[in-house]
Design brief:
- 45% of the residues lie in helices and 20% in strands.
- The strands form 3 sheets. A 5-stranded antiparallel β-sheet has the order 1-2-3-5-4, with helices on one face. Strands 6-9-10 form a 3-stranded antiparallel β-sheet.
- The protein is built from 10 helices and 11 strands.
- The model has no long low-confidence stretch (mean pLDDT 95).
- It has 2 domains: 71 residues; 182 residues, Aminoglycoside phosphotransferase (APH), C-terminal lobe (Aminoglycoside 3'-phosphotransferase, Chain: A, domain 2), CATH 3.90.1200.10.
- It has 259 residues and is of the alpha+beta class.
- A hairpin with a 7-residue loop joins β1 and β2.
- Keywords: Transferase.
- InterPro entries: Aminoglycoside_PTrfase, Kinase-like_dom_sf.
């Protein structure tokens, strides 16, 4: 049996296959793919707190140069596609799982904020549909920001119900193509502009599971601005108009909050 699990907006191949009665997921990336390398790094260094609890797929084979990895199939349905997307219990479990990931190690990086600001400015310099006046306001705000040292932890990078599975009431995690060392609060970004915005009870449950709230106002605001710019720019580049509109809404919201 072979089943296509790929996402049309990314130039990669994701297949579920069966062999000798076992099920696997095979991922293959193209020449420009960077996701496989990040996935392999996550599997080798950061996923034990999840795999030891059967809450993430176990790596069977990986070849960074060939941009290929094979994992054991993890049963479940995407939380996004089930009623669990509105269930606080699922978000509490997701908070608990994220806390396990983040607690493994910390690194202090003096240049993180400067690098992220440069990335945001590069998005603004590239093709997008952000209004010119808004671009100038964003550039001026970024130029005025402080660049303090940041504490980095292992992060998933795309923490949201699209990358959570639920099986018999238990939440687990997939897709580590954006895993990297970042501030812990960056894994709150997608939830904050989607699920938490839709239902504050989901945020309360998530924080209850996570155990604390790492979102210091200044750094959280800067991250929200950079996320909004990146979302609008990336979605325009790949032609995802719905996601692009979310990016523009994120820009409007964060600028309105700044006054």
């Amino acid at each position: 049996m072979t089943r296509d699990l790929g996402w049309d907006l990314l130039p990669n191949t994701v297949l579920e296959i069966s062999r000798d009665g076992a099920r696997y997921v095979v991922k293959a990336g193209g020449p420009e793919d960077q996701h496989i390398a990040r996935e392999l790094r996550a599997h080798h260094h950061w996923l034990t707190p999840w795999t030891s609890r059967e809450r993430a797929p176990v790596l069977v084979h990986g070849d960074e140069s060939a941009r290929l990895l094979v994992t054991r199939y993890l049963p479940g349905d995407l939380v996004l596609d089930t009623a669990h997307v509105d269930d606080p219990a699922a978000y509490r479990q997701a908070g608990e799982l994220l806390a396990l990931l983040h607690a493994q190690s910390t690194v202090v990086d003096d240049d993180h904020e400067s690098r992220e600001n440069a990335r945001a400015l590069a998005w603004l310099a590239g093709p997008h549909r952000i209004a010119p006046a808004t671009v100038e306001r964003l550039r001026a705000e970024i130029a005025a920001w402080p660049t303090p040292a940041a504490t980095l932890v292992p992060t998933h990078g795309d923490w949201q119900p699209r990358n959570w599975l639920v099986h018999q009431g238990r939440v687990s995690v997939i897709d580590f193509g954006r895993a990297a060392l970042r501030p812990a609060y960056t894994d709150f970004g997608r939830l904050a502009v989607q699920d938490f915005r839709r239902n504050p009870a989901l945020e309360a449950a998530f924080l209850d599971g996570y155990g604390t709230d790492p979102r210091e106002p200044g750094s959280w605001h800067r991250t929200r601005v950079r996320d909004a710019i990146g979302t609008a720019g990336w979605a325009y580049r790949v032609g995802d108009e719905r996601f692009e509109e979310q990016g523009h809404r994120m820009i409007r919201d964060v600028l309105a909050a700044a006054g």
